[in-house]
Amino acid sequence: MKMVLLELLNKVHFTFDDIKNLLSFRSKEDIDMLRDFAYQVMKQNVGETVYLRGLIEFSNICINDCYYCGIRKSNHKVKRYTLDKEEIYEAAKWCAEQGFGSLVLQSGERNDEQFIDFVEDIIIKIKLSTKSEKLPSGLGITLCVGEQTKETYQRFFNAGAHRYLLRIETSSPVLFKKIHPDFQLYERRMEALKNLKEIGFQVGTGIMIGIPGQTIDDLANDILFFKKMDIDMLGMGPYIIHSDTPMNVYYQEYTERKREIYELALKVIAVTRIVLKDVNIASTTALQAMYPMGREAGLMFGANVIMPMLTPTHVRNDYQLYNGKPCIDEFTSDCFECVQQRIESTGRKVGKDEYGDSRHYFNNRHLNEYGYLLSPE
Ligand code: SAM
């Protein structure tokens, strides 16, 4: 049996059935083997260093109404906020001084001119104000502010953001429709991902794992979708229920399946690493929300990025995408030493003052870390 599994793991090209088989590993022995294999693939293709992106959730105002999300526009219990620019700069400067190297600017979705100007401004200012000997181009900036027009994406790119996260949530148009209102279109998200790639961003996408009605076939198709779309970075985490959303009707099912969803999320990380090899994969906060050591577990299953929470504490409570978000009551941010200790406890090194860009992006386009074209081999 072990030989059959090893043969499967060692394939170079993975079919839909191969991926489905890998995701179906169930016994502890098989899952341990999957984890160890994914770890080796990670080590060979992107190394063992864990890269950090400080996460600043700068606004929870959102025009979208995703049925699963705690900050959806119809959740009137949420106290809405947008951080002052000064507060964002402070958090960004702290991030750079600590040695994080990069940050993620995340918010609810808005596409009005005032918002676009605001985001463009903060990118420019953060890039300028965080330049140092260690970071000659300033902090690396990953944006996560949803679907925008190609022109807007271009403005953000020109301002200095060079990575963008936009999850497809599920690559199944049918399932996508079930968890979003009619005005949120699968096709528009696909278009947005293509535009981001054309502009030259390192493009990240991802899915929620354990969405009610999602099958192993869906997840296998998601992994093939990442491959087909030539994705550079992935953020995948368990779907976690939020009690003030329309999907709270699944509470019982969610509670019964919690452990299974958590394990499935780890398996999806491992199989994605094995199939895609040189991409960056984040071990998400949602894993930690399910189990306190969930982020560390994600690292063991092949993830190589962590996004420590740097959102100022006075608004953390108002950015709850799901129940049980960790770190809400902590009065300090995830400081570099604490994160470093947690990561080193898994035997990994931390990339201090490094961008930790996606190897896949450079492997594919023959560019170096500063975006210059390398001569073809
Ligand atoms: N508005 C931006 C966007 O849609 O890309 C960024 C913010 S959005 C809240 C970030 C991500 O949170 C979503 O892509 C989604 O996958 C995740 N999320 C929202 N609700 C969730 C839930 N209940 N469980 C797990 N992840 C959730």
SSE layout and pairing:
Blueprint (H helix, E strand, L loop, with lengths): L1 H8 L6 H8 L4 H18 L4 E10 L25 H14 L3 E6 L5 H17 L10 E5 L5 H10 L3 E3 L7 H7 L6 H14 L2 E4 L2 E2 L6 H13 L4 E6 L12 H26 L3 E4 L1 H6 L3 H7 L4 E2 L6 H4 L19 H9 L5 E2 L7 H7 L12
Parallel strand pairs: 1-2, 1-9, 1-10, 2-3, 3-4, 4-5, 5-7, 6-7, 7-8, 8-9
This protein binds S-adenosylmethionine.
Brief sketch in words of this structure:
By secondary structure, the protein is an alpha/beta fold. It is 45% helix and 12% strand.
Structure explained in plain terms:
This protein is α/β, with parallel strands linked by helices and 377 residues long. The chain has a single domain (2-352), classed as TIM Barrel, CATH 3.20.20.70. 45% of the residues lie in helices and 12% in strands. It is built from 15 helices and 10 strands. The protein has helices at residues 2-9, 16-23, 28-45, 85-98, 113-129, 150-159, 173-179, 186-199, 216-228, 251-276, 285-290, 294-300, 313-316, 336-344, 359-365, and strands at residues 50-59, 102-107, 140-144, 163-165, 202-205, 208-209, 233-238, 280-283, 305-306, 350-351. An 8-stranded parallel barrel has the order 1-2-3-4-5-7-8-9, surrounded by 5 helices. Helix 9 (216-228) links the parallel strand 6 and strand 7 (233-238). Helix 2 (16-23) packs across helix 9 (216-228) and helix 9 (216-228) runs parallel beside helix 10. The longest helix has 26 residues, at 251-276. It is globular. The model is unreliable at 372-377 (pLDDT under 50). The structure holds S-adenosylmethionine (SAM). Residues 68-69, 71, 106, 108-109, 144-146, 166-167, 169, 208, 237, 239-240, 242, 286, 321-322 line the site of S-adenosylmethionine.
